Structures are given as C-alpha cells and as structure tokens.
Amino acid sequence: MPDAPHRDFLAIPDFTKPELIKLLELADRMRRGEYEGKPLAGKSLAMIFMKSSTRTRVSFEVGTWQLGGHALFLSPRDVQLGRGEPIADTARVLSRYVDGIMIRTFAHSEVEELARYASVPVINGLTDLLHPCQILADLLTVKQHLGTWEGKKIAWIGDGNNMANSWINASYRLGFELVLACPPGYDPDAAILMREGGAHVKVVRDPREAVRGADVVNTDVWASMGQEEEQAKREVAFEGFEVDQSLMSLASKSAIFLHCLPAHRGEEVAATVIDGPQSRVWDEAENRLHVQKALMAVLMGGEALG
Ligand code: CP
Ligand code: NVA
Hints:
- It is built from 12 helices and 9 strands.
- The chain is an alpha/beta fold.
- The protein folds into 2 domains: 12-131 and 286-299, 3-Layer(aba) Sandwich (Rossmann fold); 134-285, Rossmann fold.
- The mean pLDDT is 96.
- The structure holds phosphoric acid mono(formamide)ester (CP) and norvaline (NVA).
C-alpha cells in the first residue's frame, strides 16, 4: 500500500526537539489511558525480526492491535529474506501489502536500505548501532518519575553500544547532561560522538565519576546480541562496572535505575539494585508499548505532532 509522502523512524534525530516532546506527550496520554483513538483501523504492520525479542515483539504486536490494526511477525525462518532475497525487493513487496514495517536486525545499513526502498514508514526496532524505540521509552520513564529530563544528569555505565549511541542522540536533541563510563576499547560509536557529542556529552573511564550526583543510572548487558562469543573477554574488560548499591549511593538520593532488559543479575547490575526501590525497569518495559503506539499513530495513522 504505497502511501504518499511518509516518514521513517530509524534514529532519534529523525524528529526535531519539539516533535520529540509532542510525541512523548502523546505517549504519556496513552500511558494514562486518555487516548481512545483507533488510527490503525484497517492497517497492518510487518515486523521483521532477525534477532530475538520479548519486549519489542510483544509491545509492537499488542500496540498495533490496541490502535485497531494488525501486526505480522516475520522471522528469517518464515520469509525469503532469510534465504537471501534482497532487502530492496523485500521492502518493495511488503510496501504493497502493509502500512508500516518494523525491523530488528544486525547492520544498521540494512535498515537504511529497507527504508530507502520501502514506500511505507520504516521503524528501527534495534540494530547493532542504535535502539531508538527503547530510548523513547526511557525518556517517557524519566518524565513519569522525575517530571522532566531538563536539567537532569543521566549516567550510562558499561558498553558503548546501541543503547549508549541512542542516548547520545537524545542528549544532542534534548540537551540534558549525559556522562558515559565505558572501559577502554568499548566507547560509543566515534562518528555519533563526534557529530553529536558536545558540551552535554562526556565519556569517562570511572563509573563513579559518571554516577556522582546523577538523576538516572542506566546500564545494559556487556555482550549484546551477536557478541555472545566475546562474553568471557568482556567480563574481564568490564570488571568494576557492575551497578551495585555502593555505586548507586553516589547518585542523587532520588535517582532512578533503568535497564532496557534482558538483564544479567550479578554481571552488569546487582540484584539488589534492579530489584530494589530505585529501579523503574518494569515501568520502562511497559513504556515501550506507549511510545511505540504514539510513534505508529503518527507515522502510520495520521496523528499530528502539533
Ligand atoms: N529492550 C528490548 O528491546 O527487549 P527485547 O530484546 O526483549 O525486545
Ligand atoms: N544492547 C542490547 C540491547 C537488548 C535490548 C543488545 O543489542 O543485545
């Protein structure tokens, strides 16, 4: 179903600051149960998953249904993409059937290629480089629990991975302070840092420096999907980077802890932190549903951001 002009969401900077604020306001209305619309009535979302998923898969599928639409789960075992059909051909064919495509895959360039050839909106559900839907959910969680991200200090502890890169994009767009503590060799993407780092973004080596006075403490697994064989090597490199109670005690007293999940208790985070009183990880997971519904309502359902 080729749509007239359409927009994709491949990265946080695809929206301006005012648009991001409006999008998160819409998501917040959805979270509070104040949105009754069915903007996806009669519409379909294709969901391509080249990697595993619990939250992304379920929240996109349920969210589409809640907005009146229908979602199709496509794994490489089910579709010809898994047998080498070109991405460009897949994009052109799916565009004749569906009204939007969500994709989770390895190389970010594959998502860009899909978006180039699709004539319907494409949404990035995670690549090796970025995880922008998760950062929307994290921002909504910050808004829910701290009122705003304005003037807050966000700390990132651990790998300079897809999550870290998307936090950098968000700091660039929204202007909050972001301090990332990464071991040598595990810095965020150099091009994103160079392009979008600036006064508000700093990479340090000492987790305590990042966490001191922070309002949000955030971490993720040390070996992301596709890096499983590096697990042992990374456990050595990330020694001292576990978010435990002594690290949390350096943050602001009202600080919240976030983790996109899945988590490894006893590795990047202590059970006492992720299951403790400062953790907001379950709200954070729920907020995936609300932000993605807002995103689909705007990109696929004609909801205005203004
Ligand atoms: N946080 C996140 O994207 O989770 P899934 O891998 O379960 O989708
Ligand atoms: N950095 C993690 C995030 C999982 C949601 C990964 O890419 O595996």
